Amino acid sequence: MTVLDQTPPSARRREWTPACSYGDMLPERGVAVLVDGRQVAVFRTFDGVLYALDNLDPYSGAYVLSRGIVGTRNGEPTVASPMHKQVFSLVTGVCVDDPDTVVPTYPVRVSDGIVEVSAA
Amino acid sequence: MNENRNAAKGEERAGARRLVVVGYGPTAHRLVETLLDRGFTGAVTVFGEEPRPAYDRVALTSYLDGKTLEDLTYPVPDGVSLRVGERVTAIDRDNREVVTDAGAREPYDLLVLATGSAPFVPPVPGRELPGCFVYRTIDDLDAIRDAADGAVSGVVIGGGLLGLEAADALRGLGLRTHVVEMSPWLMPRQVDEGGGSVLRGQIEALGLGVHTGAGVRSIEAGPDGRVSALVKPDGEAIEAQVVVFSAGIRPRDELARASGLEVGERGGIVVDEGMRTGDEHIYAVGECALAGGMVYGLVGPCFTQAEVAADRILGGTASFEGADMSTKLKLLGVEVAQFGAMSGALDVTYMDPVGGVYKRLFISDDAQTLLGGVCVGDAAPYNTLRPFVGRPLPGAPSDLLFAGAGGGTSADLPDDAQVCSCNNVTKGQITAAIVENGLTDVPGIKKCTRAGTTCGSCLPMLKQILVKSGVDVGKALCEHFPHSRAELFDIISVRGITTFSQLIAEHGTGRGCDICKPAVASILASLGNGHILDGEQAALQDTNDHFLANIQKNGTYSVVPRVPGGEITPDKLIVIGEVARDFGLYTKITGAQRIDLLGARVEQLPAIWRRLVDAGFESGHAYGKALRTVKSCVGSTWCRYGVQDSVGLAIALELRYRGLRSPHKLKSAVSGCARECAEARSKDFGIIATEQGWNLYVAGNGGFKPRHADLLAADLSTEELVRTIDRFLMFYIRTADRLQRTAAWLEGLEGGLDYLRSVIMDDSLGICADLDAQMARHTATYVDEWRAAIEDPDKLRRFVSFVNAPDVPDPSITFETERDQIKPVLIPLEVARR
Ligand code: SRM
Ligand SMILES: Cc1cc2nc3c(=O)[nH]c(=O)nc-3n(C[C@H](O)[C@H](O)[C@H](O)COP(=O)(O)OP(=O)(O)OC[C@H]3O[C@@H](n4cnc5c(N)ncnc54)[C@H](O)[C@@H]3O)c2cc1C
Ligand code: SF4
Ligand code: FES
Fold first, then answer.
1. Which of B2, B308, B629, B729 has a CA-to-CA distance to B61 between 20 and 30 Å?
2. For residue range B483-539, what is the model confidence (pLDDT) as tens digits?
């Protein structure tokens, strides 16, 4: 990023970082992706949908959310931190048990069979 | 309750009134809180002589060991005008005003006296000396604490409930402590002579001096003018720099007396069943009131009185009809309980002065009805039996003395039985609250019913009732399955289900969570469904099982190779050292006789395992809810006392049960003789060698709630031993709850150890062949999980920090050095949470 770049983020062209092939993603499991030095956790749910959250578990300070158990709470897809089991919505990043805590979510897509994440 | 609410509306008609309360102790607090909760619209003014709002006097002593004033203080209800540090000195009944020591006059339409009681100080010479105290208020405790500083010994005058509590406090302040009691035994109001003598033994064993049947001749001062000794009538002097009077309480009825209200012969403001005095504008509640000829010195009845008075003030018709004076306490670490009557036509007594246990039940002459009981040292019967007072005995009297051994539980109680005596809550009210509000835990019950919020002794009963009424809701594993773990085990094994997807589609809802997935994964593994990372199973595993290692606080993992029985060759030790050195890992000897290598990043794990596997190691399953270790002592091979080869057996057992998945982790140990150096009796199954063979102990636990294992069978041959353990483990795996160790499982198993014996040794359920077959399948299909993972490229691919950069180590993981080894550098949580 340069100081001269005054364009608001929404108007900028999104940068997509390839993660892995979609077929390599296990249903109901996550992977960690390095996007411009930022750690993003990408999950594939049972119905094949992809979600991306920040990999940093705000409760433990460890980058581990990608290693949590994927499931549902009242129908909403979730991941439980492997450290102390706080549960986060994959859709919004909101911690289900403590709605004041939210982890960032990121755009994710499949392009030509490759999972791509954007963290710009 | 609903009737009372309608009654509250009736009061509305009478219009707002000025209510004045004198005294702000627990009773006044309960009164005001109840009134406001129920919508009282008048103005409420409360006068409290103590310089602070009401606090939990029952918990007063905890102020000396760590609780703060804040912890003990009740929240002042909104809308009360509170005047603390202001004493009411007179009641002007003609003008309906109270007069205070600040010279103020406060008019009232209704007046409630809640002035409590004051400690009785017998007229002993010297009682005014500095160093003499009573034990009633925070200020008293502050003064006692100051005086104890520098003092060597103290005496409490009075060996009743409060006296012993005061003695405990003095002891806690580091004083050599004596108790002087007039009666022939301690706590004469709560226990009989037998109980008193057992109690005495226990208290003396703690180092306290107990002087019963003893009065006080005088209290003597030393040269500094402060208390120095207490002299008994026989002339014996007891050294003391602190003297606490706790010789009973007297109702504070002085205001009532002076204003011409009727008081009892031995004190107490006379009230009717609606807690009203002879003056229709004045009520009296709590320890200052004489209701039905009794002054109640326990907080439970006081609270009931407050609620009755509140109801009357609101126009209701509640009445106070006496109260259960049962008590259960722990004094100086000794449990004491008394319920119902302290006499009866028949009684059953158990007395063990050595063990410090005394229990006596009083029974009607036809031996049908329970009248009451006294317990010292083990108050367990209190919880199970108190609600049966006045009702048919729930079992054989001798069994009832040993609660848990066949006696009824509170869940079987009739609805009108009182469960919480402090707050006068019946079982029916609790079950109703559970059903109406869909309660699922004890805090919920506390909130809705107040039960359990005062002394806490009814909490175990609340739990039992919850379990009993929660059968349908409570056993559900989580929101995805309405079944218990044991039921899921049966469904999976009977229907031959092999995947989570099939199970949840047919028997659950949603897609599972961090509770049901690992539980189902464990069941599938116990039933022998291949490697835990095969196919869909991989997605069910907790991170530890998923990476076959234990996650640490910075996101790295630890590696624990199996060292069966703790026996290891020098060469293997060297390999562990080399691996740790080459990968820069932290090493530590664990509490279970093996070595932990910590600080490995996910992508390092396969390479570490490769090195270890090549040297003949395998996974130690430190990460799994599975067999951990079978520890051993050196045994007969080396030890001069050993009678059997404990190391050999430990290794054989560890190899037999390695990899066995279970509801929680399984630990074992084998000791070569009764000296028990391997600590086998703290294990899920522990073996101690005998001259004739092996003694098998089961359901021990270290950890959070230690439990010594029970002897299941003695002098077994090795073959019998192994068969019995096989069945024990498989029966546990089939029937236990999720994350329930064998200790908790056996404690919850109806019929206990005898039942367990009948099932696995006498085959009373006819399932032993099945259990044996399941174990045979396990031993035949065991494979090392590490080796299987490194030999399978598909599984290996998961061991990377980043899918898009497999060679990049996680940059967030860094270390510093401590005592020559690595130590994680953690991201400060403020930064993590931004
Ligand atoms: C490494 C070790 C401590 C050490 O440095 O000595 C250890 C470490 C952990 N113990 Fe332990 N326990 C270790 C021996 C013990 C022992 C002693 C023993 O086994 O003889 C006990 C008491 C005995 C017992 O279990 O009855 C013990 C009782 C616990 C408990 C309490 C269990 C209970 O029933 O109350 C937990 C918590 C739990 O499992 O829910 C626990 C949990 C843990 C966890 C898994 C906590 C966690 O989730 O991070 C720790 C991580 C293990 C790891 O490797 O990262 N650990 N833990 C020991 C590993 C032994 C091994 O070689 O496998
Ligand atoms: C150490 C200790 C341990 C106890 N343990 C237990 C137990 O385990 N279980 C149990 O059931 N009970 C226990 N009790 C008894 C329990 O504390 C009392 O039953 C309860 O406090 C009675 O409440 P009350 O509001 O009626 O009286 P109090 O608590 O005495 O409150 C009365 C208040 O009124 C004030 N007051 C009096 N006169 C005036 C006036 N003229 N003007 C203004 N204010 C005035 C007093 O200063 C006092 O603050 C214990 C008591 C003590 C001291
Ligand atoms: S005692 Fe606690 S901190 Fe220590 S290893 Fe065990 S679980 Fe961890
Ligand atoms: S019996 Fe004291 S809180 Fe329930």
1. B308
2. 889 889 989 988 889 999 999 998 998 899 998 999 999 999 988 778 888 888 889
Query: Ligand 4 centre from B461 Cα, in Å?
Result: 10
How do residues B409-460 score in pLDDT, each as one tens digit? 555 677 877 788 788 888 889 988 888 888 877 777 888 898 887 777 677 6
Model pLDDT, residue B4 = 42
Domain range for A89: 16-117
CATH number of the domain within which B429 lies: 1.10.10.1100
Domain extent, residue B429, equals: 409-471
List Cβ neighbours of B94 (8 Å cut-off, separation of 6 or more): none
Q: Classify strands B110-113 and B105-107 as parallel, antiparallel or unpaired.
A: unpaired
Q: Are residues B18 and B33 in the same domain?
A: yes
Question: What share of chain A has pLDDT > 70, as a percent?
Answer: 88
* Residues B708 and B772 occupy one common structural domain: yes
Tell me how far apart the alpha carbons of residues B625 and B517 are, in angstroms, rounded to a whole number. 13
Length of chain A: 120
DSSP A33-70: EEETTEEEEEEE-TTS-EEEEESEETTTTEE-GGGSEE
For residue A67, list chain B residues with Cβ-Cβ distance below 8 A: 543, 546-547, 551
Whether B631 and B769 share a structural domain? yes
The pLDDT value recorded for residue B9 is 40
Distance CA B627, CA B625 (A): 7
Q: Kindly give, in sequence order, each residue whose CB lies less than 8 Å from that of residue A13, ignoring residues fewer than 6 positions away.
A: none
Size of interface A-B (CB pairs under 8 A): 114
Q: Give CA–CA dist B156/B135, Å, rounded.
A: 10
Q: How far is CA A49 from CA A57, A105, B504, B511, B804, in A?
A: 22, 14, 19, 13, 19
**Beta carbons of A39 and B543 less than 8 Å apart:** no
Q: Note the pLDDT of residue B98.
A: 97
Task: Identify whether B327 is part of a domain.
Answer: no
Q: Is A7 a member of any domain?
A: no
Domain assignment present for A11:
no
ipTM of the complex: 0.70
Residue with tokens 């949580």: B829
Per-position b or e across B170-198, b if 16+ CB within 10 A of its CB: bbebebbbbbbbbbebbbbebbbebbbbb
Ligand 4 site residues (CB inside 6 A) read B 420-423, 451-458
| Structural contact between residues B742 and B698, judged by C-beta atoms closer than 8 angstroms | yes
Alpha carbons B152 and B238: distance in angstroms, whole number: 12
Length of chain B: 834
Residue B481 inside a domain? The answer is no
Cross-sheet strand order for the sheet of B153-157: B132-134, B242-245, B153-157, B176-180, B209-211
How many domains does the structure of chain A reveal? 1
Helix (H) or strand (E) holding B166: helix B161-172
Query: What are the pLDDT digits (tens) for B374-420?
Result: 999 888 778 778 878 888 877 777 777 765 433 345 556 778 777 88
Contacts of A39 in chain B (CB under 8 A): 802, 810, 812
- Residues of chain B with C-beta less than 8 angstroms from the C-beta of A72: 480, 510-513
**pLDDT above 90: residue B267:** yes
Q: In what order do the strands lie in the sheet with B227-231?
A: B218-221, B227-231, B237-239
- CATH code for position A69: 2.102.10.10
> What pLDDT, in 10s, does the model give residues B760-797?
999 998 899 999 999 999 999 999 999 999 999 988 98
CB neighbours (10 Å) of residue B640?
6
Ligand 4: centre distance to CA B456 (Å): 5
pTM: 0.55
Taking a C-beta distance cutoff of 8 angstroms, is the pair B127, B121 a contact? yes
